[in-house]
Amino acid sequence: MNVDEFLDDLSSLRFPHAFNPYAEKCAVHDVDEAPTIRRKNLEAILLAATTNGIDSIWIGRDLGYRGGRRTGLPLTDEAHLSSHAAIFGCSSLSRATKGPLVAERTATIIWRMLEGIGRPVFLWNVFPLHPHAHGDPLSNRCHTRAERQACKGLLVWLLQTLNPRHVVAIGRDAQNSLADLDITAVGVRHPSYGGQTEFITEIATLYKLPVTRRDSPQLSLSLT
After folding, report:
1. pTM for the complete prediction?
2. Which residues form the domain of 53?
3. What are phi and psi of 121, to 5 degrees?
4. Tally of domains in the chain
5. 81-88 helix and 105-117 helix, angle to the nearest 10 degrees
6. CA distance linking residue 11 with residue 126, whole number of Å
7. Residues 72 and 41 sit within 8 Å (Cβ to Cβ)
8. Tens of pLDDT along the chain (224 residues)?
9. Residue 223 in domain
10. What CATH code is carried by the domain that includes residue 136?
């Protein structure tokens, strides 16, 4: 499988109550060419990762409606598209939505640490689409075992192709889901729901980073 074939397989995925940002358009927030833009965003990062190599891969549970559903990039909101492009040294990435730029608290904390690491870290999710509640497309739900099993081949291809130094599971749900797929990962606390302090400390320890006052969990992130 090459990058184009990977993207074709990803774009072809369909599940009830799950939004595929590489093939579907959100009637509320997306511009007309949104699926193409998101696919090109991911393609740019994938090509840079496969060409130049990566340090690590961080794996979350599934796409969120304020982050990857809009950008096409896991654990990345619109406020950090330029940061994602910079870490991989690729051309600028584009917004696929209209209206005000949307930031996500989890992405803000994750990108604070990624910018401190300063090395290419590839971001992915066990379930690479946005699962949502029935009748409420702008909500988040946990993907099912059947959904993650159906996507295992894509994840295995990434791990074999990118050969990361560390495989890091962001949160216990992601770690348990990876274990269900027989994939071993270093688990760190998810930065949401009071986990910011532990996440920062665990990532700083793993990558031998100093934890400064700037990383204090008491900092106000002031997101909209």
Report:
1. 0.91
2. 3-208
3. -115, 120
4. 1
5. 20
6. 16
7. yes
8. 899 999 999 999 999 999 999 999 999 999 999 999 999 999 999 999 999 999 999 999 999 999 999 999 999 999 999 999 999 998 889 999 999 999 999 999 999 999 999 899 999 999 999 999 998 999 999 999 999 999 999 999 999 999 999 999 999 999 999 999 999 999 999 998 888 999 999 999 999 888 665 544 433 333 32
9. no
10. 3.40.470.10
Residues 29/33/39/41 CA torsion (nearest 10 deg): -80
The SS3 assignment for 58 reads strand
- Interior/surface letters 34-58, b for 16+ CB within 10 angstroms, e for the rest: bbbbbbbbbbbbbebbbeeebbbbb
First to last CA, the chain: 40
Hey, what amino acid is at 132? H
Give the C-alpha separation, 122 to 175, whole Å. Answer: 17
